[in-house]
């Protein structure tokens, strides 16, 4: 099978390495490389994997053929409306670091389609499953926002306060999912509680920048902090924030200075 991977960063190449080992014909699109064009990369592809940063997705997707099955491995996209023109899309998400996958460390991710599971399952990479595309996408964006908040509060992993935060946040995320037409139960997949736990700790860039903001509310990130862009979208009405989402509402209020 010919598979085009849009995004030749750490995660895209980690996924591509698995597919290549399984004998698939892999071609990468890397916008930073001179001469690379998306159309050349997807020509005659049987499947496309989207693995660009979330901020780049709006610029890439308009050039992606809608008739080719699309695997979305980009985390940080809040709404499934982004893919409403794609009749056949599926999600791969969860608490997996690219370096761990490349080192063949045991990793569990979430998939929304059996084809994803068949393509990527190895003896070190396995999956849980849900058909809730909307919920998986939202988890991938919300966990960055809550990790930012966790750092802003100065909570340290391993403390009772941090454990309580994770428990309460998972419950709140489930309420946010349900308020937006997703399944509350999706929080129990690794894309939910598992990725939340991983992101609310070092070396998460969102958690680290939250710690920085705690000391300096006017700090500017040196690298992309996806929780900031996701939070900005939430503040602009991209999703419904229920009254019960007290943590998210508090963060929105605190962020007036820096978002």
Q: Identify low-pLDDT runs.
A: none
Total count of strands: 7
**CATH superfamily membership of the largest domain, which one?**
NAD(P)-binding Rossmann-like Domain
Give the class from helix and strand content and strand pairing. Answer: alpha/beta
Rg from alpha-carbon coordinates: 18 Å
Output the CATH topology of the largest domain: Rossmann fold
In whole angstroms, how far apart are the ends? 43 Å
Mean pLDDT: 95
Helix percent band: 40-55%
Strand order of the largest sheet: 2-1-3-4-5-6-7
| CATH architecture heading of the largest domain | 3-Layer(aba) Sandwich
Number of structural units classed as domains: 2
In terms of DSSP E residues, the strand content is 5-15%
Notes on the structure:
- By secondary structure, the protein is of the alpha/beta class.
- It has two domains: 128 residues, 3-Layer(aba) Sandwich (Rossmann fold), CATH 3.40.50.720; 121 residues, N-(1-d-carboxylethyl)-l-norvaline Dehydrogenase, domain 2 (Orthogonal Bundle).
- The chain is 44% helix and 12% strand.
- It is built from eleven helices and seven strands.
- The chain has a seven-stranded mixed sheet with strand order 2-1-3-4-5-6-7, with helices on both faces.
- α6 packs parallel to α9.
- It starts with a strand and ends in a 5-residue tail after the last helix.
- The relative contact order is 0.12.
- The mean pLDDT is 95.
């Amino acid at each position: 099978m010919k598979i085009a991977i849009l995004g030749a960063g750490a995660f895209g190449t980690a996924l591509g390495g698995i597919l290549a080992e399984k004998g698939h014909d892999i071609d990468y699109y890397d916008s930073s490389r001179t001469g690379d064009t998306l159309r050349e990369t997807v020509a005659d592809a049987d499947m496309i994997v989207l693995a660009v940063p979330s901020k780049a997705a709006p610029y890439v997707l308009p050039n992606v053929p809608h008739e080719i099955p699309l695997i979305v491995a980009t985390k940080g996209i809040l709404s499934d409306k982004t893919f409403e023109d794609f009749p056949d899309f599926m999600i791969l998400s969860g608490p997996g670091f690219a370096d761990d996958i490349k080192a063949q460390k045991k990793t569990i991710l979430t998939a929304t389609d059996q084809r994803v599971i068949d393509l990527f399952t190895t003896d070190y990479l396995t999956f849980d499953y849900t058909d809730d595309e909307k919920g998986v996408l939202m988890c991938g964006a919300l966990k960055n926002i809550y990790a930012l908040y966790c750092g802003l509060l100065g909570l340290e992993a391993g403390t009772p306060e941090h454990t309580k935060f994770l428990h309460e946040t998972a419950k709140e995320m489930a309420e946010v999912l349900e308020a937006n037409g997703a399944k509350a139960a999706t929080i129990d997949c690794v894309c939910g509680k598992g990725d939340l736990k991983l992101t609310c700790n070092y070396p998460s860039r969102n958690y680290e920048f939250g710690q920085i903001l705690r000391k300096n509310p006017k700090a500017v990130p040196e690298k992309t902090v996806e929780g900031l862009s996701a939070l900005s979208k939430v503040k602009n009405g991209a999703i419904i924030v229920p009254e019960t989402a007290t943590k998210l509402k508090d963060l929105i209020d605190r962020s007036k200075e820096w978002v």
